[in-house]
Each structure stands twice: as structure tokens, then as C-alpha cells.
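The instructor's notes for this session suggest beginning with a concrete chain rather than abstract definitions. Hand out the sequence below and ask the class to guess, before any prediction is shown, which regions might be ordered.
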Amino acid sequence: MAGQLDPDAALMKRVTQGDQRAFEELVEKYKQPVFNLIYRTLPDAAEAEDLAQACFVQVYKAASRYRVEAKFTTWLFTIARNLCLNEIRRRSRHPADSLDASASPDEDAPAPQHEDARIVGAPDRLMRDELVSKVSEALGELPENQRSAVLMFQEQELSYEEIAEIMGCSLSATKSLIHRAREALKQRLKPYLKTGEWKQNK
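After discussion, reveal the predicted structure:
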């Protein structure tokens, strides 16, 4: 294991040596997952885009502090989540700053959800879009820590251990957060899902 460097860690090692192309490869690979995570936490497309860019700026500036033995995605999503938490705290201190954004969602914003690769008919698409809307609404009603944990588990497919490290809590607390979030989602989405279970399309 020690002899084979993780591809992302290898790219970051090149970034620390001043390789701009390596940094661009990382941005291209993770810009959508980072945007998705931020957008789910702060559902404003322009804000999410700005914070995603800020996230990669921090990655570049802090490249020298990256430990190659650490998994890159854990480090990356920790930065993204901290930016979200900072913005949430800022909004709580200055609620008027985000009044317009919270009052009227950006109708022209691109949908952050992963598109289904299958070609679907209009009725199926309408049903799917309605379900996506209900899932987003249900996620928005979760406490921030539950929402972040379950999104990293379901959408980013991070392990319990990685999520615990990102969120700075114990493994048991992380499992509890994800369990409570999934149970809450199951209850809210029962009328829309036959099984009563929320599963992310792969």
C-alpha cells in the first residue's frame, strides 16, 4: 500500500512542486462534487459557485501543508464544509445580507443533482423532478450536521471514518448522525417512495 500513492495525493504532490496542470486536473475532477455539497448546504447557486472557487483557492494556497498520506477528498471536503459553516455563522450575525437570497431562490440556477444517464420520457421526468424536489426539501429541513453527514455518505460515498474526520466528531457520533438523518428522510419521503427508503441513483 505504501508503495502505491493515491492518484489524488500524487497530483497534490505535484501541486506542491508548482505544477499548475496538476491543480487544474484536481479542480476539473472535484469542482462538481464540491459545488453539489455546498449548494445542498447553502441553496444559492451564485453563493455556492463563489464558495466552491474559494475552496479551491484555499487548496492551492495550503498545498504546502497537505500531508501526502492523508486522503485528498477528506482534506478537500473539510475545507468546503468549514467554508459553509463560516458562511452560516456570518449569515446568523448579518441576516439582512442573505434576505433576498432566502426569499427568492435563483430560478435560473443550474440543477446541482447528478443527471440520470438514461433517456426518460416526459411523464417519467416529471415524476423524477418532483421526487428530486421533495428530497431537496426534506434535506433542507434537516439540522446542518445531519444534512452534511448524510450527503457525504450518500452522494460523495465517503466512509464513516472519513466523515468523522471531516466533521471533527467520533465514529459513533457520525454513525448516529447519518442514522437519524436517514430515518428523518424516510419518514418525510414515505408518501413519495414505495419502499420508504431514500437511495441515491448511481
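Then share the key points. The two ends are 28 Å apart (CA to CA). Residues 98-123 have pLDDT under 50 and may be disordered.
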